[in-house]
Structure formats: C-alpha cells, structure tokens
Design a protein that fits this description.
This is Ribosomal protein L7/L12 C-terminal domain-containing protein. It comes from Dactylosporangium aurantiacum. InterPro entries: Ribosomal_bL12_C/ClpS-like. The protein is mostly helical and 81 residues long. It has a domain of 56 residues. Helices cover 75% and strands 0% of the residues. It is built from 5 helices and no strands. The mean pLDDT is 84.
Amino acid sequence: MDAPESIRLARLERQVAFLYRHFGLDPALADVFPGADGLPPEFLAALKRHDLVTAIKLYRQATGAGLADAKETVERIARGL
C-alpha cells in the first residue's frame, strides 16, 4: 500500500470511529456479528439493559447456539458495551 492509500485508509477509519461514537454504537458488535441482521432488535435492547438472561435466550433462538456458547458470546459482547 502506498502513502496516499495509507492516508486515505486512516481518514476512513477516523470517520467510521466518529460515526460509531456519534450513534452510540459498539464497534465490537461488528466484529462479533458480521451478520447481525439476523438478530432481533430486542437482543440489543436486552444487552443495553444488562438483561443477559433475555439476551442469551434471544441469541439462542436466533442462532440455534447451545447454552454454553450463547452465554459465552453474549457475555463477551456485553463486556464491550
């Protein structure tokens, strides 16, 4: 990657970081859930209320994950909020 591309990439990264902060979004969710569109909005609402039991239940319903995997994933996401 040459210097102009590096400068452009750095600028885009700053802009994305600004948008995450502006809209109150957690950038970690993008990494954890590349296809987060399959999760219901109630899932994120439960996370924001720190209602992990409900979030785990909703995550399991949406993904078919087992209890242990769902609990681990939801707790990891919650730590990032």
